[in-house]
Specification:
The structure holds three protein chains of three kinds.
Chain A lengths: L10 H16 L5 E2 L13 H10 L5 E6 L6 H13 L3 E2 L8 E5 L12 E5 L13 H9 L4 H14 L10 E3 L3 E3 L17 E6 L4 E5 L5 E3 L26 E5 L6 E5 L2 H9 L5 H7 L1
Parallel strand pairs in A: 2-3, 2-4, 4-5, 5-8
Antiparallel strand pairs in A: 1-9, 6-7, 6-10, 8-9, 11-12
Helix pairs in contact in A: 1-2
Chain B lengths: L7 H17 L9 H7 L1 H11 L4 H10 L4 H12 L17 E6 L49 H7 L27 H10 L2 H12 L8 E16 L4 E20 L7 E10 L3 H14 L16 H7 L2 H9 L6 H27 L1
Antiparallel strand pairs in B: 1-2, 2-3, 3-4
Chain C lengths: L2 H4 L6 H17 L5 E2 L11 H10 L6 E3 L6 H10 L12 E5 H4 L18 E5 L8 E4 L7 E3 L5 H8 L6 E6 L2 E5 L4 E2 L1
Parallel strand pairs in C: 2-3, 3-4, 4-7
Antiparallel strand pairs in C: 1-8, 5-6, 5-9, 7-8
Helix pairs in contact in C: 2-3
Classes of the chains: A alpha/beta, B alpha+beta, C alpha/beta.
GO molecular function (chain A): 4 iron, 4 sulfur cluster binding; alpha-D-ribose 1-methylphosphonate 5-phosphate C-P-lyase activity; metal ion binding
Protein name (chain A): Alpha-D-ribose 1-methylphosphonate 5-phosphate C-P lyase
EC number (chain A): 4.7.1.1
């Protein structure tokens, strides 16, 4: 790939993205428009996250890429290989060893540190988009801090189902000002967004970048009588026994058999290496 | 025992190897050359150049070969390549009035200076499969004709002289560029035209067709459609004059549409405009119709709520690379989100059942 | 043109700009944090840190305003040669460089609009002192509280009241940099 610049993007493009990242950090939760470039992977497959990572990576970085919490999902593999080739950065699957983590749909279970950067891939950055399809309208709503529509929608859920019927991409309010889409992470991950690491969000097709500095106030929208509930499957991981991690449901046969395992593969492997067992691993050991 | 799915990397490599094999197909059949695609699938090459926003027939042909004939995939390859190219400067506006026309027709006049030149068109061919093409060794005999005059005047200029058609004010402003700046609304006409020139042919056709069927009707006539080569020039400040960079073939369409007017202004025809790389008639006519429909506001027309009048709708959904990427991304794993939906729906159903049981007992 | 006007750029632009940006991003994300920033060198009186900021973030798409003593022919030539950014007035600039006194009054800079609060200026304040003492800082990016030697507090309090509009500041001294975004509460 020597025909291409370090981290693929040309320097002028990187400067444009870097300026957007800095504005995003200065105005947490506000979506900064940026002239997203066509990347050698399809829109909707992480082009925003890839551009943000490309503008952020240095040759000294160690990159981890996850999709659905796993390092080995095909799109994560593909993006990791892209940066191995174009930025010649070191890569890892170990959360604590990474300096930059690009993610789709999950926040790692392990607490991140002040020296880490979490880059999210975002498909639809506008939290109000499903309520109001027009960009011209939603921009006004953010400007006027007019979020009544969102509360009405959440309240209608409660009236209809008894609960807020949003289980992922659950909207948050940042520093009591901007309503922000946390990307399609399960709502289980929402409380983790008040963290020590820098969080950067890239939406390539929609041409938006936004950011959260460390320790930024991030509150999931709710009502006093219906407080936010970051629920998950009421099981323990069948492999490592973890009761505090987000679980994938794996169908094991065609007779209704199923098991639950950690979605964060690194977290699960680490726990097993430490000797933790789950229902399945106990049986095998015996 | 259950082992978490591994081997994503190997799976990708194997899939790519299989793809390469499929691309080549039966190796006893001779391989397609780039030159064959460029010369014999020219309209496909034109579409890839137009929607890929890069005028390079050889690269477009390569992209078509690599994409196994999937034109949207080929356009994607061109776009991704284009974005890495350094920008040396901008050319001067091309002069389509200086075009060396190979086709030039007007639907609004029977005959006109410069004449009606049909050129290489499918029009009036009977759409019967030509089985002679299936046999090898076709020979073509082409009758020769006198060359058309070097330059041919624009049809709309005839109307303009009489003041019958709305004059388009010239502007020295550098038009915005949506490949360098994020799309911002409201979009001015130059930006809308740039977006339409790159937009998916099928989408643009559908939008244009909808205006003809009454969703924002603009009563369009093809004032003129011309196809031919124009030279591209660039000012070099160090030299103090413009140099000729070469020629490109473009298709230009100007429609003459229903007139506007008021008590103070006499009625005038209005215009729609389409300009596309290569011979791309369907696209340029569609573009003109959609352009005209989008001009409702500046021309003081009513917004009847037609899709083709809605700039935000048209501009945000016409790009096939954006659209196909997002559409196809739903085949990527979404099991984490799906799991959260599963948990939620199980909980809601459990509670609904619990509520239903005591009610049934009463 | 003097020799210095042609030197002082990045030796290896892509990785050096990447490293510089990471320092800049870190100070912006963590107000009060002071880091080294010395990859570029511009003619006096522009500090290495300010030169690196300009070289990392500016290009022909960003207007730069040179305030007071920073506005010299040598600096203008350096910017023209290395960055190609247009030199513009305070009212239209995206980035401004100068001492705190030279940049005053802050009201001359753009603070963004309610629909586009990002369309605001970033000020690079050349400082004699840069230390983690003085004004107390709280807000996004700061765990409990931080301290930074600021030229005053009232201007930053007024700026914070404008949120989400407002200016963002970089403080440079020699080859060191710190930042103060509009979100930081200053006491």
């Amino acid at each position: 790939m020597s025909d291409y610049n370090f981290a693929y993007l040309d320097e002028q493009t990187k400067r444009m993205i870097r300026r957007a990242i800095l504005k995003g950090l200065a105005i947490p939760g506000y979506q900064v428009p940026f002239a997203s470039r066509e990347m050698p992977m399809p829109y909707g497959w992480g082009t925003g996250g890839v551009q943000v990572s490309a503008a952020t990576l240095t040759p000294e970085d160690t990159l981890k890429v996850i999709d659905q919490g796993a390092d080995d999902t095909t799109n994560a593999v593909s993006i990791r290989k892209f940066f191995e080739k174009t930025a010649e950065v070191g890569t890892t699957t170990e959360t604590s060893a990474a300096t930059v983590i690009q993610t789709r749909h999950r926040i790692p279970e392990e607490d991140l540190s002040e020296d880490q950067i979490l880059v999210y891939q975002v498909p639809i950055p506008e939290p109000l988009r499903f309520l109001e399809p027009r960009e011209t309208e939603t921009r006004k709503m953010h400007a006027l801090e007019e979020y009544g529509l969102m509360h009405v929608k959440l309240y209608e859920d409660i009236a209809k189902h008894g609960h807020i019927a949003t289980s992922y991409a659950y909207p948050v309010k940042v520093e009591d000002r901007y309503v922000m889409d946390p990307s399609p992470i399960p709502k289980f991950d929402n409380p983790k967004m008040e963290m020590s690491a820098i969080q950067l969000f890239g939406a390539g097709r929609e041409q938006r970048i936004y950011a959260l500095p460390p320790y930024t106030k991030v509150v999931s929208l709710d009502f006093e009588d219906h407080p936010f509930d970051p629920s998950k499957a009421p099981h323990a991981c069948a492999l490592c026994g973890a009761e505090d991690s987000y679980l994938d449901e794996v169908i094991t046969d065609d007779k209704g058999g199923r098991m639950f395992v950690c979605s964060d593969t690194d977290y699960c492997e680490k726990r097993r290496a430490e000797g933790h067992t789950g229902d399945l691993t106990k049986e095998t050991a015996a | 025992m259950y082992v978490a799915v591994k081997g994503g990397e190997r799976a990708i490599e194997n899939a790519h190897a299989w793809l390469a094999e499929e691309r080549r197909g039966d190796t006893s059949v001779e391989e397609l050359s780039i030159a064959q695609i460029r010369e014999q699938l020219k309209l496909a090459v034109n579409r890839v150049m137009a929607e890929g926003s890069l005028y390079d027939p050889d690269l477009a042909a390569l992209a078509i070969k690599q994409a196994r004939g999937d034109l949207i995939e080929a356009i994607f390859l061109i776009r991704a390549y284009r974005t890495t190219l350094p920008r040396f400067g901008s050319s001067n506006p091309i002069e389509t009035s200086e075009m060396d026309c190979e086709r030039r027709i007007s639907a609004t006049f029977k005959d006109l200076p410069g004449g009606q030149v049909l050129g290489p068109t499918f029009d009036y061919t009977h759409r019967l499969l030509d089985f002679k093409l299936a046999a090898d060794g076709e020979t073509i005999e082409v009758p020769e004709r006198d060359a058309v005059p070097e330059t041919v005047p624009h049809v709309t200029e005839f109307l303009n002289k009489e003041g019958l058609i709305q004059d388009e004010a010239a502007s020295e402003d550098t038009p915005p560029d949506l490949t360098r700046e994020p799309l911002e609304l409201p979009a001015d006409r130059a930006l809308r035209l740039q977006s339409l020139a790159r937009a998916d042919e099928g989408f643009t056709l559908g939008m244009a067709y909808s205006t003809q069927r009454g969703y924002g009707r603009t009563h369009a006539f093809v004032g003129e459609l011309r196809i031919g080569a124009v030279s591209v020039e660039m000012d070099i400040p160090e030299l103090g004059f413009a140099i000729d960079l070469g020629e490109i073939t473009v298709t230009e369409c100007e429609t003459v549409n229903q007139f506007t007017g008021s008590k103070t202004e006499p009625p005038q025809f209005t215009r729609g405009y389409g300009l596309v790389f290569g011979q791309s008639e369907r696209k340029s006519i569609s573009m003109s119709l959609v352009d005209r429909a989008l001009r409702w506001e500046e021309l003081g027309e009513d917004n009847v709520g037609a899709p083709a009048q809605d700039a935000e709708f048209v501009l945000y959904h016409g790009d096939n690379i954006q659209a196909t990427g997002f559409l196809e991304h739903i085949k990527l794993p979404h099991y984490v989100d799906f799991q959260s939906e599963l948990e939620l729906i199980r909980k809601l159903r459990r509670e609904a059942m619990e509520r239903a049981v005591p009610e049934a007992a009463e | 043109m003097e020799a210095l006007e042609l030197t002082g750029g990045f030796f290896d632009p892509a990785p050096e700009a990447a490293r510089a940006f990471r320092q800049i991003m870190t100070v912006m994300a963590k107000p009060g944090t002071i880091l080294d920033l010395d990859q570029a060198e511009a003619p006096a009186p522009v500090s290495k840190a300010a030169a690196t900021l300009l070289l990392t973030l500016c290009d022909p798409d960003t207007g730069i305003y040179l305030a007071g003593d920073a506005d010299t022919d040598a600096v203008r030539n350096w910017i023209n040669f290395h960055i190609g950014a247009p030199l513009v007035s305070a009212a239209t600039c995206d980035f401004a460089v100068g001492t705190w006194e030279a940049l005053a009054p802050l009201s001359q800079f753009k603070i963004g609009t309610s629909e586009y609060p990002d369309r605001s200026a970033s000020l690079i304040v050349e400082s004699d002192v840069l230390e983690n003492q003085g004004a107390v800082l709280q807000g996004p990016g700061i765990k409990d509280r931080a301290a930074l030697s600021l030229p005053e507090t009232a201007a930053f309090q007024a700026n914070q009241m404008l949120f989400p509009l407002g200016l963002d500041f970089y403080f440079t001294q020699g080859s060191r940099v710190a930042a103060l975004p509009r979100t930081t509460e200053v006491r």
